[in-house]
Amino acid sequence: MKKILIVNGPNINILGAREPKIYGNITLAEIEKELSLLAKKLNVEVDFFQSNHEGEIIDKIQSSVNTVSGIIINPAAFTHTSIAIRDALSSVSTPTIEVHISNIYAREEFRHKSYVAPIALGQIAGLGTDGYIFALKKLASLAQTFN
Ligand code: CA2
Q: Is beta strand 70-74 parallel, antiparallel or unpaired with respect to 122-125?
């Protein structure tokens, strides 16, 4: 069965607990449950990973090489700072969709820059947690078409 890796970066583990106006009330556990149910319907396997540490995210991306057909990543604040995460994603050459819960372009200027976007298949921002759903549907369909 094709596998999709779903990576969440720093502070996504406390989603739902604070700043509901920006990020909503949904928790990471609830997002992952919904994605698991969808993955079953789409006939793909999902591997969830969240870390507050840049190096751990890089290690996870590197170790996914040749084992996953797609990557969904919300690098959170590392989106705007991490050339290292971008390089790791480039190195594995796996179709990647960058997801942001909030519309990063409607927020502070420092959030307008994404180091990941230029090497991603696409970016979804501002559609809340539905962005993960749309990304999973797209990558599952790609995996079944091409791999
Ligand atoms: O909109 C997104 O998904 C972000 O990736 C979320 C990041 C932010 O740094 C990015 O610019 C956009 C923040 C992750 C969650 O941070 C929280 C902060 C307070 C309370 C709960 C979560």
A: unpaired
